[in-house]
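Hello forum,

I keep getting stuck at the same step: I have a sequence, I want structure tokens, and every attempt I make locally crashes halfway through. Rather than fight my setup again tonight, could one of you with a working pipeline run this one for me? It's a single chain of 366 residues.
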Amino acid sequence: MKIVVFGLAISSSWGNGHATLWRGLCKHLVRLGHRVTFYEHDVPYYAATRDLFELPGGRLELFSTWDEVRPRARSDLHDADAAIVTSYCPDAREATELMLDKGGAIRVFYDLDTPVTLARLRNNEAVPYIPPNGLGDFDLVLSFTGGRLVADEFCRLAGARQVQPLYGHVDPDIHRPTAPQPHYRADLSYLGTYSEDRQQLLQRLFVEPARTRRDLRFLIGGAQYPQDFPWSPNIFFVQHLPPSEHAAFFSSSHLTLNVTRSEMARMGWCPSGRLFEAAACGTPLLSDSWDGLDTFFTPGEEIILAHEAADTLAAMDMSDDVLSRIAGRARERTLAQHSSARRASELVDLLEHAVRAEPRLAAEEA
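Reply #2:
Ran it on my machine without issues. Output:
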């Protein structure tokens, strides 16, 4: 199968989660024998932090303007089996128009930012990566978020005909237990780009415990943190970490925290890729709670849930044996159910089904 993708970014993992996900998917699609071409608008802020320069086994097309790349894209679509446009793709509408004009390929919209997209659609706000007439011309809409509500809303608000979840995942070739590094050592770590909408929860589950336990070391890794972030002397900071450093980061942590974006938490059924990455590295997981989380990890057995600072402090006081058992179960489940190889196979099955199926809404309950 020849698959052409028009996406946000795969060449730089700076400040976006798309790159890591697409790298894992493309790698394993190629291993399954498929051909992948990824079109990415070459913008300065990603060019300055580029950590991938070619797509192993596939083709990366970096371009400066849509007019420049249109002939190449048209040629690729001519014999493509599937064409995928993603959320936040800068040229999503132009790419969709070209897909519709060429015909033949399975037309797919993959929303890796479903909670944001649906919130804007509910508020009648413009969504620049969705065509003005909605998603009705796509054969398949893939959503990073599951649950019946998502499928229903994509149908009602954007005219989608068939909706299926394609969740986050992890590449265990990249994210695996590795030797701890002294500069990443932490009693509690947190890896994530700064976001105002999860700051209150981060303050409660991370900053407050750090202020209570001044004898312990806390570590944040990520980009775009403001100078007025409420640091304390025992909270250390590592600016943007490329995916190649994630394994060392997590493997150096006694415990790591996941804080979900507010829209993702409200909607539920939307696991952050960081959950799978940390689990694959064998690091015990502490997370906020949301509907559907128990579909991916069993609370108390594979993941620890926290609502208040006291929950974080209690988790940090758990014995090493208990934390090790929890981490081991989470890693086992992640490798079995949430690997990039598993998601690549799921994507191929969904594409093949889209060829056979009559247009309909596949509202799967996660």
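The longest strand covers residues 35-41. If your local run keeps crashing, start a new thread with the error log.
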